[in-house]
Structure formats: structure tokens, C-alpha cells
């Protein structure tokens, strides 16, 4: 007969006492922001996925090429050679029947787009006919530095001879004269 084989006692797995979960509150981001200011950040990933290195080429197309050409054309994408960010191809959608005219202004469009980017981003333009819906230009109030200084505050600043000090005082006068609107609480 065979002797019974003694089995080794199994060790119990140690179970450590579960540490209580630490709930961390996300830090607040400050005051509420205008949705239009957040849109470039939100759309940046989508724009890059479809070939735009900067979303502002779509939102500011009328400023880049002029209102006349913006009603006839719309940027579709910019495709770059592999591993490069220069010498790309700008794909434009052109309103039907206007492609021959737009072909004549392609060098001007390339120049304006490159001037907007600040380097030779676009080398070619590929045209495709289709429906173009012109975007309405953004209606934003002028920046604080372009708002006029009130007459009574500006008279005393003319006597300041230091230009740097005068610029700081003018900025402060504009801020006092044009305070930012109070947020709405609903």
C-alpha cells in the first residue's frame, strides 16, 4: 500500500485592508469664460485630424483672402508632405462656375495664406467645385486698447513726457472708463 501523501497546508493570501479612497476635488478654473474663447481649444484636435494646422484659417478665412473671395471659396484642408510642416497643398471648395476665375487668383491666395501663417506653409492649391456657405464674420467688441479714452481723462495725459508712463496711464484710463461687463447670474 501506498502511504498517504500529506498535503502542505495552503497559505491564505494576505488581503490588506482597503485604503479609503481619497476624493480630490478638481481645482476651479476661475470665473466663467465666454464659449467663443474656448472653441479654438475644443476644435483644435478635430481640425488637426482633418488637415488644418490652425483652426483660425477656417474662422478667419474672410480676413485672409478678402470678403469677395471668401464668398466664393472655403478651405477644406491642408495636406503636408510626410514629416514636414511646409510646402503643403491647400484644398479649396469653390462655388460652381467660379473655378476658372479662382484659378487666376491662386498665386494671390497662396501668398495671403503664407503671410497669415508667417512661413511658406502652402505651395499648391487644389480646387474642388461644390456648395460654399460663407461664414458670417465674428462680431466682437473692439479690444480695450482700441476703445477711446474719455475726453476728461485724456487731457491730463498729454502733459506726461515719458511715453512708457503715458502708455500705462492711458491703459489704466481706458480700464476705468470701460469696465468689463458684470457676469449674469440666472
From the structure provided, what is the oligomeric state, counting identical versus distinct chains?
Answer: single chain
SSE order: HHHHEEHHEHH
Using DSSP, what is the number of strands? 3
With strands numbered from the N-terminus, the spatial order across the biggest sheet is: 1-2-3
- Estimate what percentage of residues fall within beta strands: 5-15%
Mean pLDDT: 76
Our count of helices gives: 8
- CATH fold title of the domain at 38-129: GMP Synthetase, Chain A, domain 3
Distance between the termini: 90 Å
Question: Radius of gyration in whole Å, from Cα?
Answer: 30 Å
Largest sheet: 3 strands, mixed
| Class derived from helix and strand content | alpha+beta
Considering DSSP H and I runs of 4 or more, what fraction of the residues is helical?
A: 25-40%
Shape: flat
Characteristics:
12% strand; 8 helices; alpha+beta; 186 residues; GMP Synthetase, Chain A, domain 3; single chain; 3 strands; 3-stranded mixed beta sheet; flat; 35% helix
Explained architecture:
With 186 residues, the protein is an alpha+beta fold. Strands 1-2-3 form a three-stranded mixed beta sheet. Among the domains are: 38-129, GMP Synthetase, Chain A, domain 3 (2-Layer Sandwich); 144-177, no CATH class. The mean pLDDT is 76. The chain is flat and about 110 Å long. The chain has helices at residues 35-49, 56-59, 61-65, 67-70, 99-104, 106-117, 151-154, 163-177, and strands at 73-79, 88-94, 122-129. The N and C termini lie far apart (90 Å).
